[in-house]
Amino acid sequence: MGASTYLKVDDFSLLGSAFSLITKLASADMYSPRGIFIAALVSFFALGSALNIRSIAYYDPTVGGGSMLDNAGDRYGEPLNVIISGLSFPDVLTDDGILNYARAIGFSTECLGIHIGNPQSANLGDGNGYVNQTVELREDYGSVDAGTCLESAIGGNHFRMYRQNGPLANSGALFLAVSKEEPATDNHNIVPDGYDIGRDELASWAVGQTSYGDVSYSTTAQNITGLLAPGSAGVNHGTPFTGPLVIFPPLSD
Ligand SMILES: *[C@@H]1O[C@H](CO)[C@@H](O)[C@H](O)[C@H]1NC(C)=O
Ligand SMILES: *[C@@H]1O[C@H](CO)[C@@H](O)[C@H](O)[C@H]1NC(C)=O
Predict the structure, then answer these.
(1) Which residues contact 38 (CB under 8 A, 6 or more apart)?
(2) Ligand 1: distance of its center to the CA of 133 in Å?
(3) What are the protein's UniProt keywords (predicted)?
(4) Residue nearest to atom 10 of ligand 1 (CA)
(5) How far, in Å, CA of 138 to CA of 122, rounded?
(6) How far is the CA of 203 from the centre of ligand 1 (A)?
(7) By C-alpha distance, which of 151, 146, 140 is closest to 107?
């Protein structure tokens, strides 16, 4: 990790209301603090409503006794290979917000609400211990309503989501286990290098300007290092996980 960079703005006043916006970026490795910061302010002005932007992108789960691998129930786990930053526009980090965001970038709820497979759990080192996934979303193949049925049938990208919100590390960040799967006929096994492929595919769909419903998003991504060593140790299906992680700060415009 490189030198730490901190930005701090207190008692920011807008439209007669006082806001406190503290943007504390733990590391210059994560992304360009200035870029993020400016984008955050632009959104702030555009909305003109009371916002409560959080103060940190995420906490390292291992510091609080957690893991960057979830628990698939067989002593192995999937890497939490995408983090949606706690510095995101706050709505994005809610259950409804992440669903809308996911739809904007090409995912939707599971086919007919039917879930295939057991939930997995993760310990994000926030004091909540192991918690089941909040939601699992699948590639929608261009159709929010029917596309995930197609994904269930022919395979594709999907992710499980966990929220870091316990008392010891309440960043609000969303940790995703993203992977590209084989068709259902193959029991939803991951494709070779499916973690890295899923991560990079999600990044390519998300980065830039996207929208769903009446919300539009501006997303940037950056690989981060040091949270989880590359390799296949402890990784589900023995699928090697090579790349560093990606972090997104999606902002509503
Ligand atoms: C996760 O959900 C399963 C099935 O509903 C349940 O048996 C299990 O106890 C849950 N695990 C945790 C950590 O909450
Ligand atoms: C992250 O690194 C991988 C290679 O390890 C690369 O393919 C990908 O484009 C990078 N993603 C970003 C957002 O820089």
Answers:
(1) none
(2) 9
(3) Membrane, Transmembrane, Transmembrane helix
(4) 132
(5) 19
(6) 30
(7) 140
Q: Tell me which residue has its CA closest to atom 1 in ligand 1.
A: 132
**How far apart (Å, rounded) are the C-alpha atoms in residues 92 and 59?**
18
Question: Residue 6: exposed, middle, or buried by beta-carbon count in 10 A (0-12, 13-18, 19+)?
Answer: exposed
Q: Quick count: other Cβ atoms within 10 Å of Cβ 240?
A: 14
121 lines ligand 1 (CB under 6 A): yes
Which string of DSSP letters, residue by residue, matches 28-70? TTTS-HHHHHHHHHHHHHHH-S-----S-S---GGGGT--SB-
Q: Report the nearest atom of ligand 1 relative to the CA of 130.
A: 13
- What residues are paired with 82 via a beta bridge? 176, 246
Spatial neighbors of 106 by CB under 8 A, at least 6 apart, are 139, 140, 142, 157, 205
Of 81, 202, 223, 246, the one to substitute when testing ligand 2's pocket (max ligand atoms within 8 A of C-beta) is: 223
User: Which residues have any ligand 2 atom within 6 Å of their CB?
Assistant: 200, 203, 221-223, 243, 246
| Amino acid letter, residue 167 | P
Lowest-confidence region among 15-19, 65-69, 205-209: 15-19
Beta carbon of 130 within 6 Å of any ligand 1 atom? yes
- pLDDT per residue over 130-172, tens digit each? 999 988 887 777 777 667 767 666 678 889 999 999 999 999 9
Return phi, psi of residue 92, to 5°. Answer: -65, -25
Can you tell me which atom of ligand 2 is nearest the CA of 221?
Answer: 13
